[in-house]
Predict the structure.
Amino acid sequence: MAVAATTKTGARPSRAGRRLAVPAWTGTVPFLAYVGVFLLWPTGIVVVDSLKNPSGAWQLSNITELANPLVRGYFIGSFKLCLLSSVAGAVLGAILAYAVASGNPDGIVRRLYLSASGVLAQFGGVTLAFAFLVLIGPVGLLFHASWYYDFPWGIGLIYTYFQIPLMVLVFLPAIDGLKIQWREASENLGASAWQYWRYVGGPLLAPAFLGATLLLFANALSAFATIAAWENQIAYVVPQQISTALSSEVGLSNVNVADLLALGMIVMVAIVMTLYVLLQRRAARWLR
Amino acid sequence: MAALAPVGEVVREPSARRAAGVSARRRRRLNAFRYLVFTVFGLFFALPLLAMARFSLEGAKLGTWSVTAWSQIASYQGTQAVGIPPLISSIEITLELAVITCAVIVLLLVPTMIWIRLRVRWLSRTFEFLCLLPLTIPAIVLVVGLGPIYNRIQRVSLSALMLFWVYVILALPYAYRALAAGLGGLDVTTLAEAARSLGARWLTVIVRVIVPNMWQAIINALLLTSALVLGEFTIAYLLLYNNLQVELYSISRNTPNAGVLFATSTAALAFAFALLLILSYVGRRRRRSRG
């Protein structure tokens, strides 16, 4: 309300006469233009091109290519890997987040784990694959895991390495939001620790937990660097196949493969993120 | 409502209260659990990094120590035959990209955010949506659509520095959240009204009144952006540019187990870690000065 007052009274007096009245939203034009060119336009290109054939004519039947067993295989691979790494990351991350939350909020442990989580959740990438390669790969310093190059398990372990820190970052606020009064109340009523978690803490945290798991799922879905550095010969997941399709034009003829796969990913992420937002809204009820 | 407010405040400082609410036996059990968890996870997180650091210090014979790999970082020539430039040049490019991306993101985001907060409130939901959108559009998808756009950019300049255009988009959600947290803690309207009634122009209000009040948030945004640029691989790789991560990837493909690979990786990781550690200290100082 006060803003409106500022606008009316503050903007006018001295300069109104000299300058044309430019609407205030023009100030946001540079930003909108930038986002339009480098975010909305590329996304639009993906959507439009996926519905065209390589010579540029509309071809809506492309969508049926997503059901092609070969293409479906990449999506199933992605789904397996994301499910494995997001569930493992969510469960382990929740345990770690609880251990962090129950300590001193200004303590060294909490700060160390939080800033480490910030780095490790971000800095996965190529480096992470190298680190695991020298730890448990064929030249492993710790031991040589024979399953290092097995598809969901080897890479799943590596993904878990950046999923756990992300879980800590997104789930910690939910745990911090558990009021101590609820715990005290349940203790006064004679509840055991198990009963507290089963009937009070668990149900309260469930929406936040599921939401965070979905976020991890989307995170794993879009990860590319790590899996590219882990194995570059065989494509298991959609991002790898997009990369292959971009660098070589072979594959399904007659369709813009990369665009089509990208469209499939957009749809998948959109579904996951919509569910995430809905769950977050549900979780936010208790976290005030 | 009034009775609830102080209760809500207490929750912000969880530990002391929580510990007091739990019986002594339970607290002992909780501590045992915490130490176990910290040890196990600490090992899980530290071991791969230590292995990488150890490998970077491997001597010519297995099991010996040497710093050769580290001293090679500055002089490693890449594999020119396969078109990989010297390592040091890709490090330079990446650092320059980090600086440019940071500058652009601050110039683009800070004035726009303040302006929207002051004058165009009705845009704020749309603005937030646009800023967080890159989180839901994977980089690998973005790069598919960027092909035609980068074709045009490459007609003007072939430099890898042109990557900053899209890095700004990638960093947008992180920078936005850092800045929004800083701006949310300010009474922007009152500050602006005070400055305006003293005769300040809008530019003066933004640059000399509001920005100095949100330095911490700006620094946070800058650190997050730099960390992101240092670790970026997907877009550079698929648009055929050579940044640090792409260079490391190509070295690993052509000369597997090169010590310099692990030395550089370790150094880059340590650098990013230092940045984020600074960030956590900056955040703490701000909390202190408020409380």
User: Anything to note?
Assistant: Chain B has one domain: 72-290. The CA atoms of residues 278 and 284 of chain B lie 10 Å apart. Chain B has 14 helices and no strands. The two ends of chain B are 23 Å apart (CA to CA).
